[in-house]
Design goal:
By secondary structure, this protein is α+β, with helices and mostly antiparallel strands. The chain is built from three helices and nine strands. The strands form two sheets. It has a seven-stranded antiparallel sheet. It has a two-stranded parallel ribbon with strand order 8-9. It starts with a helix and ends with a helix.
C-alpha cells in the first residue's frame, strides 16, 4: 500500500511539468488566435465593404450614389445608419440626377461545397434583374467557380424577368434553372454545362431572395414613386 502511494506521488511529480507545459502552450495558442482574429477582423470587414461597393457599381454602372435600407419588424424600409451591418440589406442606387436606377440586393445560400454569397440588381421599371456578382464562393475550382466568371451564365442575369402577378403579391413566373442550351424563357436561367449543381444553387438563391424582396420593393416604388 505504501509502495503504491509512493509510486503515485512519483508519477504526479513527473507528469506535472508536462501538464503545466501543455496548459501554457494552450493559453499561448489561444491568445495568438484571438489576437489574429482581432487584428484581421476590421481588415476583412473593410475589404468586404470595398468588394460590395465595387459590385454595386458593376451592376449599376450609371450609379453615382447609393443608400442602404433594411426592413424593420413592422415591414417598413428604414435607412441603415451603420453601413457595415450588411444583414438583409438592400441598396437603392441613384444616377447623377438622383434618379433611382434600381436596387442592389444581397443574398446567400448553400452551394456545392459551401455558402455562396452574391449581389444582384433589381430594376423596378424594367421588372427585371439586371446583373449579378458573386461576392464569395468556395465552389469547385475550374467548373463550379465559373458561376462568377462565365459570360454566358452571367448574361442570364442582365434582363431576367421578375414581373409580378396581377395582385402584386408574388412573381408571375418563378425563376427556374434549365439545362444548358435549352433556349430559356425570360424568367429561366441557362445552367453551365458541367457545373449544374452550382448553377442551380445560384438560381435557387436568387429565386428565393427575389420572391421575398421584389414584391416589397415594387410596392415601395408604388407608394413612394421613383
Amino acid at each position: 500500500m505504501n509502495a503504491r502511494t509512493t509510486d503515485s506521488k512519483s508519477m504526479q511529480s513527473t507528469d506535472w511539468p508536462m501538464y503545466r507545459a501543455l496548459v501554457g502552450l494552450g493559453l499561448i495558442c489561444s491568445l495568438v488566435i484571438v489576437s489574429v482574429f482581432e487584428y484581421t477582423a476590421p481588415i476583412i470587414r473593410k475589404n468586404q465593404a470595398a468588394a460590395l461597393r465595387q459590385a454595386i457599381f458593376t451592376i449599376f454602372p450609371l450609379a453615382r450614389t447609393y443608400t442602404a435600407f433594411h426592413l424593420n419588424a413592422e415591414g417598413q424600409f428604414k435607412r441603415m445608419t451603420d453601413e457595415s451591418d450588411t444583414g438583409a440589406a438592400v441598396y437603392a442606387c441613384y444616377d447623377q440626377g438622383q434618379r433611382l436606377l434600381g436596387y442592389a440586393i444581397e443574398a446567400q445560400g448553400m452551394g456545392y461545397q459551401d455558402t455562396i454569397r452574391l449581389l444582384y440588381g433589381y430594376a423596378p421599371k424594367q421588372s427585371a434583374i439586371v446583373g449579378m456578382v458573386v461576392l464569395e464562393s468556395r465552389e469547385t475550382p475550374g467548373l463550379g467557380a465559373r458561376i462568377a466568371s462565365d459570360p454566358d451564365f452571367l448574361r442570364n442575369f442582365r434582363q431576367l424577368d421578375v414581373r409580378l402577378a396581377a395582385d402584386g403579391s408574388k412573381l408571375a413566373h418563378p425563376i427556374e434553372v434549365v439545362p444548358a442550351d435549352q433556349a430559356p424563357k425570360p424568367w429561366q436561367i441557362d445552367a453551365i454545362s458541367g457545373a449544374t449543381v452550382s448553377s442551380r444553387a445560384v438560381g435557387r438563391i436568387v429565386e428565393q431572395s427575389a420572391r421575398f424582396w421584389v414584391p416589397r420593393l415594387a410596392n415601395r416604388e408604388t407608394s413612394h414613386g421613383s
